[in-house]
Protein: Branched-chain amino acid ABC transporter permease/ATP-binding protein
Amino acid sequence: MDQYLLFALLGMGAGAVFAGLGMGLVTVYKGSGVVNFAQASLGLWGAFVFDELRRTGDLVLPVLVIPGRVHLGTSTPLPVALAVGLLSSAVLGGLVHVLVFRPLRNAPTLSKIMASVGILTLLQSLLVRRFGAGSRVVDAVLPSGSLRFAGVELPQDRLWLLGITVVVAGVLMAYYRWSMAGLATRAGVEDEVALLLARWSPNRLAGLNWALGTGVTSLFLLLASPITGLNPASIGTLVVPGLAALLVARLSSVAVAAVAGLALGVLQSELSYMQLQSWWPHSLPSGTTDAVPFVVIVVALVLLGKKLPRRGELVLSRLPAVVRRPLRLKWVLLGTAVVALLAPLLGQAQRNGLIASMVFAVIALSYVVLVGLVGQVSLGQAAIAGVSAFTLARATDGLPFPVSVLLSALAATLAGVVMGAPALRIRGAQLAVVTLAGAVAVEALFLRQISVSGSGLADPELFGLDLAAQRYSELARLPFTYTVLAVLVLCCLLVSRVLNGTTGRRFLAVRSNERAAAAVGVDVARTKLIAFALSSFIAGLGGALLAYSRGSVSIESFNYLAGISFLIFAFIGGITSVGGALLAGLIGPFGLWYVVLDGLVPLGSAYDILGGLTMISTAIVAPEGAAGFYGKAVRNLLSRRTGPARDVAEVPPPADMPAADVPGADTPAADVPGADTPQAAVAAPDAPPVPLSAAEGISGPALEVERVSVRYGGVRAVQDVSMVVRAGELHGLIGPNGAGKTSTLDAIAGFCVSEGAVRIRGTDVSRFSPHRRFGTGLARTWQATELFLDLTVRDNLLVAAQPGSPGDLVNDLVGRARVMKDDAMSALRLLGIEHLADSHPAQLSTGQQKLVGVARALAARPAVLLCDEPAAGLDSAESRELGRHLRTVADTGVAVVLIEHDLSLVLQMCDEVTVLDFGRVIAQGTPEAIRRDPAVMTAYVGDPRTVDPVSQEVQP
Ligand SMILES: Nc1ncnc2c1ncn2[C@@H]1O[C@H](COP(=O)(O)OP(=O)(O)OP(=O)(O)O)[C@@H](O)[C@H]1O
Structure:
């Protein structure tokens, strides 16, 4: 027991460091909304500066140019060195905010993650350049020696660290609770607009918090350095536990971050003690302690996943745009032929560069699938590629060449799905944290356990043809070059097919808006898992090729730092297109660009610094990457010469533009897909109703809601609401603000936890997820339009028309995907907006967007359509037009539930009306009955009289 106490206290050394990281990360996040992957590097800078001052009296500067250091005298007193060290980190943190994150304030989360990862690599290289790569032993800062307690010698420095952690956490808490700047920072987390109105500058506050956060982290790294030593390479062991503390603290509580950090340190220390015991199962991998943060993160996310707060940012930002355009076969063949003809002409070094470029392009394609198309930021792809490489070296002995590679890639697929599974509830920076922690765990539990030397890898051979990458003096053999080229071409075609097929459409829908995707039947979790699997398979192929090309498998090629470097180059190239991946290959580690540059100036580690700097500037200037940036520039140039380029979406006309002026209006009806169907006859609300709904011919209730209740914590938003809606009925759901209308709709569609029963055409769907409810014939629209901004109007509708089936991916790959264009077009035609099919949502007016939202819900021919204030934001003429459209929809046999504030519109258009107030049904019946119901008028105007439905004036 004494030993457990001792090890618990020993763990406080690392624990205080983790706590310092966690508290610093929370401070930075509170101030700026950035999850700072470079926190440990920024903190280490101050610790190194402090140590260097004490050793040599030199103040080291982070500037890349000379002079890198200023001599301040031979002996610097401890307090001065301490102050200068902390200040260095704080200033560096403030500078990072001003130079990088301030310009990125409104940028997508992806750009912020990439920038902070760029800073991490940049600082790591800087630390090595300025202070050397080795480990430093640091003189004691805190009192050493021990105290005797309960028969155990307790180290004093750990007790001091524990005390300092408590004090710093207390000071930070007091700062956020009582100081004006702290209170303003907390207010900014909720609502930055309000902060601005109160005359606080969010930028200045962010800068202050950056400086404070990095200073706090540096303090703990510095004080604990005599225990932990100082080593630039230790960043890997620091980043993940710090991020784990941040997540456990729900990104907001300094105190919880401190406790979580200390607890992690203690847990790791106790585990390392237990591993020395005879009863410990020694068959467990020795890296178990390094995997602890991953487990903590996974548990934290499972328990807190949906509760993690989001910042009230000024601007909602989007990921870089994706252009869906299939690869043209002639370009693929031409490109392949050029590389194939060029390869024999290159020298060994250049051909090696070509191979490295092609291998890296394959790996970059895996990022295109996961990060570019689904928006899932992964820092763990190198570990996934490593699983394949190590499997190839160890587990596929004796298997023939392509089979061994395919099996290894499948092992990587499995690892990717396992790493991705806990991440299904999250995205953005938190996902990046999980994948980074996962990469460290894979490295500790798997890669390090099966370290393999070069001889472990059998050379590839196909039908007697020697495909080895190297043989004697030949370092880059042609047959291997062609093998890699073939794999790259296949992967490019695969990704292009997926991007342009139904799977890609669904990927982009999930990337754009997860809950809207679920509302149109997309199984979001499955879609993400498919993306993880596909991307891991491609990364696995890349990993196997990388292993062959290097002739050996080493951890350094696949550790978390390699993962970060991979992501950096993939992002610089362009993370949303096949072209971007090819560019990434060109500039990637040891690729052709590196070889050419290295021939001119020896690069060494400067290439990483260059990569980090390029990464940061790419994140700021061109988040779409070099491919997107130059692609756009070329298109602009062409359009200036020849008029608008074809793939740039043209701005559609307003809805009231005459049909003849609409692009494509001169297309004969017979040329429009689906024009020969009966639905094609319907072009306006005045036209006779056309059967569109899957509910055709069904009589009886399409929707039954029975005693549904919804609670948000202490708020009872909906209480025992019941209603029945028949096929072909337009049912109004009205009530004052906050009456519970949207919550009722959310409960029916499965978007909130509720009690009671919901039946669609007799099927009880109360326990179904939203996408399964959609499958039974229930569609909805949203109060905000919630269209998929990355997709055209047609594609928005096609996502709903084809919510997914198990064979879709294979069909996409073999080019046999079914396209339900008719359903999509007939929904657009029904609402008179087929001319908008090729527009992007951002180009449409609010009214047009609302109609597209209704059309999207109709594209799957639902039996029940729930419309949440579709007329909000429209003028009264547009509202009435929309009302007529909905009447037409109901007349096709769809049961329509309409939430609407325009009382006169509801009383005119609807067959039945349900009125809610304070979450309860206060009236139900025909518009006539509702009009006469005094309870309704009391709820609306506090006056028990009736209302004139047209003028909305209260009648005596
Ligand atoms: N996510 C939530 N968490 C806590 N309370 C909520 C949440 N969503 C809604 N509420 C509360 O539940 C009640 C009903 O809200 P709801 O949005 O369903 O009403 P509504 O009739 O649709 O209002 P409006 O017409 O303004 O859209 C309100 O008191 C609201 O503040």
Notes: The mean pLDDT is 82. The chain is about 55% helix and 10% strand. The longest strand covers residues 701-712.
